[in-house]
Amino acid sequence: AGLGLGLGQIAAGGLALGAAAAVASDSDSDDGGGGAAESETAYVIDGYLAGARVFHDADENGRWDEGELYDTTKDDGSFDPSIFGADMVLTSTGGIDISTGAPFTGTLTAPAGSTVVTPLTTLVQSLVEATAEDDEPLDAAEAEEVIKTKLGLDADADLTTLDPVEAAEAGDTAPMKKAAQVANVLALAEQNGGDSADVARELAQALNDALNDPEGAENPLQDSESIKAALEAGGVSPETSQDIADEAKTANDTVDEAEDLADIEEEQAKVAGETTALRPTLAEVDTEIDAAEA
Fold this sequence. Notes:
Shape: globular
Oligomer: single chain
Distance between the termini: 28 Å
Number of helices: 10
């Protein structure tokens, strides 16, 4: 996805975490309103994404279309979940990761009712979609159990409400490490002509397969062959996929060894480095937010 200097262009194909001020849904939207989320505030998180567009993809085409409910994240990555119905899957594109200053150039999703949209919720929703046509499709709760089990996350954690940044700041870096590993693969896919949504579905399926295969990769997010397969499923050229997969594995191994949030964010910034020359500044994001609110 090409990166421009305007928030509108970023929103057309985003992958980052951060936030910019809320824009109410189109008054003549085809999705009647009525948010069912109990929380008054929700977040898009990789690091927090400012200026991301959060929407309900009613026609499931992977992008926002006129008439679909949406909100725009504020400077702290927050948005208003009350505009979305309880049965609405959330999609987020665009924005600026306020921890790294890099643009997000892919797509994040979350199951209906989520109060966070993160790389981890993206895996959960992607696994739901990847198994939809199976004889025994997984619902969101079942998919979440697969993701938590295979990634070694706390069995009691609720990924649809878990803020990985907040957890890392409190001393539990495991969720942020796994979220960053997912984000690194998605970012590299987008930088090299791939579709992050397709890559996420393949990664989620790889985690599910590995859970049921004793000989499968211990963590597909740190296995170059699993990453390579996901990249190619997302449209990355087989001629370059191995080199990109090796780069992702190296970055994710570094994240795995990180001691704190700052170390994780430093590695994410390196992965995002190829796009930073074209990134808009937070000031430019704020300008577009102000214009949208006017």
